[in-house]
Amino acid sequence: MATLQERLVEIMINNRLVSRQQIDKVLKIQKDKGLSIKQILINEGIVKEKDLLSLFAKELYIPPLDLSRYKIDKNIIDLIPRRVASQYHLIAVSKIGNTLTVGMSDPMNIFALDDVKALTGYEIQPVMCLDAEIEKSIAKYYKTDKETISGILKETPESETLITAQENNLAVDVGTALAESEKAPIVKIVDLMIVQALKKRVSDIHIEPEEAKLRIRYRIDGQLYDVFTLAKNYQNAVLARLKIVSGLDITESRLPQDGRFKIRMEGREVDFRVSALPTIFGQKFVLRVLDRSNITIGLERLGFSSKSLEIFREAINKPYGMILVTGPTGSGKSTTLYSVLSQLNTPQRNIITIEDPVEYQVEGITQIQVKSDIGLTFASGLRSLLRQSPDVIMVGEIRDSETADIAVKASLTGQLIFSTLHTNDATGAISRLVDMGIEPFLVASSLVMACAQRLMRAICPQCKEPADIPKEFLEKIGIKVTPNKVFYRGRGCDHCNNTGYFGRMGILEVLFVDDNIRDMIINKAMVDDIKNYAVAKCGMVTLRDDAYSKFAEGLTTIEEVIRVTTED
Questions:
Q1: What does the DSSP 8-state code read for residue 492?
Q2: Closest CA to 462 of 419, 435, 493
């Protein structure tokens, strides 16, 4: 009986999926690297795995199965040991009578079929599945006890007490906490908490002491979710472990502290910014995940519309002036600015940032940490760094009139200034600067662009389905509905933790300051008048309109549009 690899060439050539020349190339690579023909075809981009799956299902009369949409009973999974599943790249799917259905990436591997039949005692019915889906299913269903928090906790006897001091007065036996924090179960708990968070695309890890337990929550796509809880007697040891890796003072539990640490996972470095805050039941920790790969992907990958992106690019190519990004906390302002700085980061430019705190550490950029307790504020730091001959300056946030005044004047003397403000929309940045005491003519002369930003959750691609939304409702909120237009929502699946959303995208409102807007600023025109002019004459897309367009394209839901742009 021929193997799948041997039949592969014949089937694909007969169906004109590949040419003889391409097969010759693949065979040469196979000889050099020892990979399977199927894997080489996919790696080289000659064919797509889904196309192969469809072709083989048709030619070999073996049905395909999408494992991502299929929930498997744990009792069925356990019929095949993990060692065998990993060795042959297969997974048990269902059982009817004496027949066991097995998902395989190579359903013509007779050795695998014979071994599984001998091992289970069942007749084997293969179905074809994607390699990646089999890998995900093996990782998902074959979790051992030692890979879970509960399994780690089982390693420690229940009678073992990690706290020797009374909880009422929050006194901590530092020596005991330090010793316990180095024990294997505690180290594993903290490590697993962090690794699990990265796999789930978490932006923040919240570790919250309560009266009777330690609560762990993850923020995923902007929303907080309960993950697990630990017994109260693990609290001091877990928090001590976090203090050690973050470089915090383990003896101090009455004052807020800030620290950071980094880990390397799957070939990438991830920074964690740690904040500790004393509460009535102990110190609450928040670990902010700062993945450097996010700031090097470029503006195109942040989800902005093409028109907004074009205006943004025009602004950052100016030799000097001020560019402001506005929005609430957690709207992605820092990621946007760092993405811009990464693009501008060349040997020909001297780029300096002053931040509180420094979010991402970027090679080639001079970064200053604000330390107000010793007099290093945004204003004093900005005044000093101007003597360092900078080309580009990023001020973490304009919080007061002194910082605003220095930043505006620096932008008029040849520097390109980036900063953030907390306003609801782009035109609000103008009134905020004027309210801080900056003369309107200085605002008009220095401001190149102001933009408002938000982050919206995207529909999960694995469970995306048409949504039935009443036409009257859409028209009531200002959305024009064309005939036969289909809108979408996420049904909820394991891939998206049953939320219906997976990942986020940016929406942007960009106000480019032209000569007419400068005149309006100098003449102290109302902010609403400036906004109306920008929309009517300059084609500015508002946050709400940008969100509507994402909804119309089937990228997000109407619920998300309303949630994110309520103030509009």
A1: -
A2: 493
Map residue 437 onto helix, strand or coil. coil
The predicted structure's pLDDT at residue 60: 74
CA dist 490 and 535 (Å) reads 32
pLDDT value at residue 107? 77
- The total number of residues shown for the chain amounts to 568
Are the CB atoms for 340 and 352 separated by under 8 Å? Answer: no
The closest alpha carbon to 132, from 71, 50, 241, belongs to 50
Q: Which amino acid is at 230?
A: L
- State the average pLDDT over residues 542-548: 89
Gyration radius from the chain CA atoms:
29
Write the burial class of residue 111 (CB in 10 Å: 0-12 exposed, 13-18 middle, 19+ buried): exposed
552 burial type by CB count under 10 A (0-12 exposed, 13-18 middle, 19+ buried): middle
Beta-strand ranges (E) seen in 160-317 are 202-209, 213-220, 223-231, 257-265, 268-279, 282-291
- Can you tell me the mean pLDDT for 175-191? 66
Q: What is the pLDDT of residues 77-118, one digit of tens each?
A: 888 888 788 888 899 999 998 899 999 887 777 788 888 888
Mean pLDDT of the chain, nearest integer: 82
42: its two tokens? 């996919």
Beta strand pairing call for 321-326 and 447-459: parallel
- What secondary structure letter does DSSP report for 148? S
DSSP 3-state of 402 = helix
Most confident of the following: 105-109, 139-143, 290-294, 432-436: 432-436
pTM: 0.65
Backbone φ, ψ for residue 324 (5° rounding): -115, 135
**E strand residue ranges, 78-212:** 90-96, 99-104, 123-128, 202-209
